[in-house]
Amino acid sequence: MRSPHSSFLIPHPSREGDHAITQRLDGEVVVITGAGRGQGAAEAKLFAEHGARVVLTGVREDEGHAVAKDLGDQGLFLTHDVTDAAGWQQIVSAGLDSFGRIDALVNNAALWRAAPIEEDTEENLQRLLRVNLVGPFLGIQAVVPAKRATGDGGSIVNISSTAGLVGIPGHASYGATKFGLRGLTKSAALDLAQHRIRVNSVHPGAIDTPMVSGVLGVDAGQRDVPNVPLRRIGRPEEVAELVHYLVSDASAYVTGAEFAIDGGSTAQ
Ligand SMILES: NC(=O)c1ccc[n+]([C@@H]2O[C@H](COP(=O)([O-])OP(=O)(O)OC[C@H]3O[C@@H](n4cnc5c(N)ncnc54)[C@H](O)[C@@H]3O)[C@@H](O)[C@H]2O)c1
Question: What fold does the segment set 20-267 form as a domain?
């Protein structure tokens, strides 16, 4: 079946014939959700440095526009709540109109609310499920037709958490969403492998972003964080490097996999 997006397609310059093993992203278009700050913003900047054009989405308009502005012609910010299914179609259309193709999606946006199970609420669980799990589900469904239309495969990276690998006290709701995202990743990877669309999950430990830095009371440079083997929390730029690998053709044989980036925390 001819894709409704095929008329927009611009050939990918580096994907004729065999895949080159490269972390360059020249000619690639990446959608990042929740990209106005934290890890999403770090990823947008890093990908642009490697030649990508980036569709940044999110609900924090001022921050999103500011990051996109720094990227010049390589950045486009669109206001979007990841739970809005119709809005996802507009993201894909706008991305195709502006940049001609979509190669990768980073499902980065999420909410974090910690509460012991006895104090947690169904309302909290439902809200976290919508943003942290339904949002990525809708995103994958929205971008896959555009990726398939390129015939070049592509990459989807779902940002889970160490709370999606192990139980963490006070994280029943958040952990349920992040374990769910890990499961969604593996099944989607199997469904989409036939189209050479790879799907992987990334599991950060404590990272110095607005999501947790105020709560943890430590900064990224601080030494002696005793429960982390590497004795510090991580930086958003370090997560961006891992996500960059997974978005790029350097990871062409990697799908359905999970990557902890946690200073060794889950190895204990
Ligand atoms: N910071 C950490 O320690 C840590 C640890 C493990 C996992 N993570 C995960 O890393 C990812 C990035 O988080 P971060 O650390 O950069 O935190 P952050 O709070 O700085 O970034 C999250 C972004 O998601 C956006 N967002 C929230 N709800 C949204 C919605 N409904 N629609 C669109 N955007 C929405 C926020 O506005 C924000 O821009 C998240 O998936 C988070 O769960 C973070």
Answer: Rossmann fold (3.40.50)
